[in-house]
Amino acid sequence: MDPASRSSAASAASHDWQVTHDLDGFLGQAGDFLRSEPALHTVALSVTAALRRRGDQAFGQEAPVFGFLEREGAVRAAFFRTPPYGLSLTRLSARDADALAARLVDERHRLPGVTGDSATAAAFAEAWQRRTGAGAVLRRSERLYRLGTLTVPAPAPPGRARVATAADRDQVARWSAEFAEFLGEDADRDHGAWADDRAAYGGVTLWETDDGRPVAMASVTPLIAGQVRVGPVYTPPRQRGRGYAGAATAEVSRAALDSGADDVLLFADLANPTSTGLYQRIGYRAVADFAVYDFTAAATA
Q1: Mean pLDDT, all residues of the chain
Q2: Per-residue pLDDT tens for 114-123?
Q3: Model confidence, pTM
Q4: Which burial class, exposed, middle or buried, applies to 84 when counting CB atoms under 10 A from its CB (0-12, 13-18, 19+)?
Q5: Which among 39, 252, 286, 295 has a CA at the least distance from the CA of 142?
Q6: Angle at the Cα of 172 (from 170 to 178), degrees rounded to 5?
Q7: Which region among 240-244, 251-255, 287-291, 296-300 has the lowest average model confidence (pLDDT)?
Q8: Which is the most buried residue in 84, 118, 192, 215, by most CB within 10 A?
Q9: The three-state (H, E, C) secondary structure of the chain, written as one string
């Protein structure tokens, strides 16, 4: 297909996408689709649940935007964006990714980046570059893992696990900010509010030494669609290499299973063989690869 025909086809297909700021309306239309493959859609499920708990400004001051692809009377794909963060996509064909890019350009959306399974994210990044003149840089490659048989690391490091409380707010918020900086996420998240939300449902576990000093944390999402997702897992640099993160991860994984989760998931950075190796030793098995792209300029038509 020549470029003009491809552009015309994408423009027509862009009308299959429905775009909204209405969370309840989005979930009313796309919720069953998201729950049809909960592992692959874990981020969309957990983020929309957090927006329901915490309100539209849970991730930033600007209103979130949602969308779904409807074809032949059924939802085939979905996206969301919680500014200032980038676009997050479910699995798309290259054609549908191009059609979505066309729709968002027409509506003058400005995107700092995109996240999705590796093929989808690459297809959308290429379409966005072509349609806007923006650059696209692969920032991170991740692998989604699902827990098989839990294997607790042995011997365990000195200390114990305990669930963080409101009294640990400053510590948890500080480590959340350090973890975001480590990932290169410079968005202005309210880490204190994040810590409050996790504490409200016991979502952060600390590993502390025998004298009660916290040395690592592992966090989890609430139970959604039969699954819990672990993350973030963080150990300050000076405490690494002592088994604290592995012990904390094993503990929250065990607790998730005990809470009734059918699946326990986590994402790991493929550039970090230490963490990916650790998770595999605990019992996590690969599900799918994901990618995060940054757009070096955000232009609109």
Answers
A1: 92
A2: 999 999 999 9
A3: 0.91
A4: middle
A5: 286
A6: 100
A7: 296-300
A8: 215
A9: CCHHHHHHHHHHHHHHEEEECCHHHHHHHHHHHHHHCCCCCHHHHHHHHHHHHHCCCCCCCCCCEEEEEEECCEEEEEEEECCCCCEEECCCCHHHHHHHHHHHHHCCCCCCEEEEEHHHHHHHHHHHHHHHCCCEEEEEEEEEEEECCCCCCCCCCCCEEEECCHHHHHHHHHHHHHHHHHHCCCCCCCHHHHHHHHHHCCCEEEEECCCCCEEEEEEECCCECCEEEEEEEECCHHHCCCCHHHHHHHHHHHHHHHCCCCEEEEEEECCCHHHHHHHHHHCEEEEEEEEEEEECCCCCC
Joined tokens for residue 234: 């963080």
Q: Tokens 């939300």 appear where?
A: 197
Hey, what amino acid is at 99? A
Which pair of tokens denotes residue 138?
């692969």
